[in-house]
Amino acid sequence: xxxxxxxxxxxxxxxxxxxxxxxxxxxxxxxxxxxxxxxxxxxxxxxxxxxxxxxxxxxxxxxxxxxxxxxxxxxxxxxxxxxxxxxxxxxxxxxxxxxxxxxxxxxxxxxxxxxxxxxxxxxxxxxxxxxxxxxxxxxxxxxxxxxxxxxxxxxxxxxxxxxxxxxxxxxxxxxxxxxxxxxxxxxxxxxxxxxxxxxxxxxxxxxxxxxxxxxxxxxxxxxxxxxxxxxxxxxxxxxxxxxxxxxxxxxxxxxxxxxxxxxxxxxxxxxxxxxxxxxxxxxxxxxxxxxxxxxxxxxxxxxxxxxxxxxxxxxxxxxxxxxxxxxxxxxxxxxxxxxxxxxxxxxxxxxxxxxxxxxxxxxxxxxxxxxxxxxxxxxxxxxxxxxxxxxxxxxxxxxxxxxxxxxxxxxxxxxxxxxxxxxxxxxxxxxxxxxxxxxxxxxxxxxxxxxxxxxxxxxxxxxxxxxxxxxxxxxxxxxxxxxxxxxxxxxxxxxxxxxxxxxxxxxxxxxxxxxxxxxxxxxxxxxxxxxxxxxxxxxxxxxxxxxxxxxxxxxxxxxxxxxxxxxxxxxxxxxxxxxxxxxxxxxxxxxxxxxxxxxxxxxxxxxxxxxxxxxxxxxxxxxxxxxxxxxxxxxxxxxxxxxxxxxxxxxxxxxxxxxxxxxxxxxxxxxxxxxxxxxxxxxxxxxxxxxxxxx
Length: 695
Ligand code: I6G
Known about the structure:
- By secondary structure, this protein is α+β, with helices and mostly antiparallel strands.
- The protein has 25 helices and 26 strands.
- It is globular and about 90 Å long.
- 8-methoxy-2,3-dimethylquinoxalin-5-ol binds next to strand 3 and strand 8.
């Protein structure tokens, strides 16, 4: 930017001619950068640099209002609010395109057969050359440039007469307001205005946050934006554009559609990167399949591909049937959105206890499969979308994503239907259902008891940082639960060798190892056990704080919310979650049974934090210690009241360093933080609590 500023120094007073030259240069540079950013997706300068130059241009134009022209990058949002959209007669009609509804490969073959027949080609003649482009799910648009300046943007309308939406289309950064000098004096560019999926999601998110209307799909959002009367609103709806053809052109000629696309690219228009040439039906089919396979990964929605005869002379020879060109066809993919009736709304309980309302649908073919269920996400989504049983819903299924109800067709309800309500009890286990403040999801509080959550609960309980049962992975847990060997957590400690060996691919030796690991896990610590119970919001650190504060499990189980709030770092949400968990009789029952199976830990008296030897001290571990694992050292330090941190600062009290300690050791030495080895750390742990010394 410094260089550019030197190129364009501030204007001298009254230097109108000089200002005009600078304005032109600034616009040229800004347009080039905008093209790199919005069309090529390859910016060469940071945004801040663009913004600074943009402000320079604004300042210059403010000093010389007579030099402001509509094609200046400062003039994209013109600020005027229209009374209505004026009709525009297209100089060359905007055609529609024939659709090949056969979504299978034969759709491409049928098109090729028709073309060859029309051109009277014999089987001996070479394959016809086609061009293939993705078909965007957006709105057709015609952009008219006169002497290189955008003068009008119009919708398709009925093909003859569309609507003037220039004020909104100017806000689309991918659309050039001015063309290079070699552009013909009259040029109409035809293409599709659309909204990228990420922009659509962000827009809906913003609308939701502001309590505004959300949109069912990117196409509807784009259509709404294009037809706004106020360009200020349209500017906030992020639209994109792809060019795919020409309308009226004076002063330029082309031999092929491929050449048209190449030239459009050179004039600064975005052209679909997937477009390409295909020789004959076989290559059309390959294209259809290749773009179809990439469809879900594209950042925008496409509903098919368009095949066109590449030679413009052949296009002319083929001509039109009514309003459709014979030389082009849209070959569709299976629709990703379809309308169907909602027969019922059920509630499913997920592995983590989340309750998900699911719409039971009249079967509908969407996204290539027959769909009978679609997620409604949560109660708030249902309310927002206004979904009720009996409604005609729009169901979306894209790729492998779970089908979802994106909205309902308005005005179809003939009688009163009550609003859907979330059940107060879990439909699987009957435990209380709760929704925490500020959360959208309802959850079952059944935890360990709820069959829907069983597998997840077992895996969490057995995890390394919890009970550390080696060898109890998800495949084994799947089998144990599916075969009914384990119904609740304590069954883990009750199953025998015979039940394990009976499982698929379980050798006796492996079964013995699993049982040995389970036996070993019985001797544990209170924090590990507490963490292993999977109480919502109780992570390792909270489990440690709870154990330290209360000393025994019974004290924690019987604590009131107020007592729980006394614990370090426990706030109202966490206290409530712990209290609700232990208020469920079945959760207490699980705990008792685990104890009865021999799970033990050492309990202590409620700790006075200040009497712990390392109370108030921050320690950093680095390198490999000779006998203790990192986790074991951390457990010991935390049990002694220390806070174990990840990085060294002036506030660190000790660094415990083992072999191959790196930068943390160097930092400690640099800051003069005391460095201990493992023996030094153990000695420190054994020492009485030091009083009030700071490093
Ligand atoms: O509606 C359309 C979408 C895409 C088209 C089209 C297209 O090409 C990629 N091409 C033509 C020639 C027409 N409509 C009429």
